[in-house]
Write a structure and sequence with these properties.
Elements: H1 2-40, H2 48-55, E1 80-84, H3 95-100, E2 102-112, E3 115-118, H4 131-145, E4 169-175, H5 179-189, H6 191-195, E5 201-202, E6 207-208, E7 212-218, H7 222-225, E8 234-239, E9 253-259, H8 260-264, H9 274-289, E10 293-297, H10 304-316, E11 322-324, H11 327-331, E12 339-340, E13 343-344
Parallel strand pairs: 1-2, 1-11, 2-4, 4-7, 7-8, 8-9, 9-10
Antiparallel strand pairs: 2-3, 5-6, 12-13
Organism: Glonium stellatum
Transmembrane segments: 12-37
GO biological process, one term: lipid metabolic process
């Protein structure tokens, strides 16, 4: 009996010591992770764009959000070759993408009456969320306050970003309703930008770059894009898988896009295979040879490790524009440090 009691006491002591060591190890682990998160987490830049994002309000009636112009509007923001996919879904359309440094922004547009409403599906459209209130008027306000010069001036400051004044911003318009019905309304709404000379255009011989390049996708009618052979300022999103088609040139198109799966097949957890990477290289090279920017949409979003592998592979192989949903992870995180100590630190 005494021996059983002694063994029980020994067991309890060992158990207690192990429990204490486990608790200490857990505390150390949590502390180390907390330190890593603090050290690795990207710092939020302080500039005028961040202030606008914090204070932004939904358009009221027919008016876009207005703000006092901050002199440090885009201070320290480095433009990145990323496309803000479904930008209108963000808490703050346009400004959030610009604050992250993304140079390409997407808006789905629907013709309702005489106006262009912005949204992913028809049932969520609001009369106050229009192409003008969310995008056109804010862009006009930004470029006016930036004192951007006309594109025809030989020596000029062009663009939104102070760190790279010549970085154009691409406004991609996804035509959701009939393209031929949308076309004249879209051109009418782009008129304030065109009149100021802020739109990239084709003059019949050359592309004249401006601070804003407008690209049509979805139901955009290619026949109307190419109808004017001497002056056009709305360019096409060409199909990447048909890029050998001689119809698509740098004079009428800007992007060459496709969903990733039809282009190279399903991506498994291990990442892209050698064959998939080779297929991607050929497609990207073919678009680049025509002067077009390749773009793959519907890339993996989860798990984060797979998403980051796909991002890395696309960028390493020279993709023209990285299509993204998570702005912060794409532009401010080091993708190789998103998973630390078994924890995913970045990504929605």
């Amino acid at each position: 009996m005494a021996e059983i009691t002694l063994n029980w006491r020994r067991f309890m002591i060992v158990f207690g010591v192990l429990c204490c060591m486990g608790i200490i190890a857990r505390i150390i682990y949590i502390s180390l992770v907390a330190v890593l998160i603090n050290r690795l987490s990207p710092r939020t830049p302080r500039n005028g764009l961040q202030d606008i994002v914090k204070s932004w309000k939904e358009p009221d009636g027919s008016d876009a959000y207005r703000f006092p112009w901050p002199e440090d509007f885009s201070r320290d923001i480095v433009p990145e070759a990323c496309h803000s996919h479904n930008d209108y879904w963000r808490k703050v359309p346009l400004y959030e993408a610009l604050a992250a440094g993304c140079v390409s922004i997407e808006a789905d547009i629907w013709l309702e009456g005489n106006d262009l409403l912005v949204g992913h599906v028809k049932k969520v459209l609001k009369s106050s969320r229009t192409l003008r209130t969310l995008y056109i008027d804010p862009i006009v306000n930004i470029l006016s306050n930036r004192n951007v010069s006309n594109t025809s001036e030989p020596i000029k400051e062009v663009g939104i970003f102070e760190t790279d004044p010549n970085a154009a911003v691409i406004l991609m318009l996804d035509f959701k309703t009939d393209g031929h019905d949308l076309w004249p309304v879209v051109l009418s709404q782009l008129e304030p930008l065109r009149q100021k000379g802020w739109l990239t255009y084709f003059n019949g011989i050359d592309i004249v770059p401006g601070p804003i390049t407008v690209v049509g996708t979805g139901n955009t009618p290619f026949d109307l894009v190419v109808a004017n052979s001497t002056y056009r300022y709305l360019f096409f999103d060409a199909p990447l898988l048909d890029i050998s088609n001689s119809s698509y040139t740098v004079q009428n198109s800007y992007y060459a896009s496709t969903a990733l799966k039809p282009a190279i097949g399903r991506i498994w957890l291990r990442g892209l295979s050698r064959g998939q990477v080779n297929a991607m290289k050929i497609q990207i090279k073919a678009a680049g040879a025509k002067g077009l920017k390749s773009r793959y949409w519907d890339t993996p979003a989860w798990p984060i490790s797979l998403r980051d592998k796909a991002w890395n592979t696309l960028v390493e192989n020279g993709v023209g524009m990285l299509n993204i949903d998570d702005l912060i992870s794409a532009t401010r995180w080091n993708w190789d440090r998103c998973v630390v100590a078994g924890l995913t630190l970045c990504g929605a």
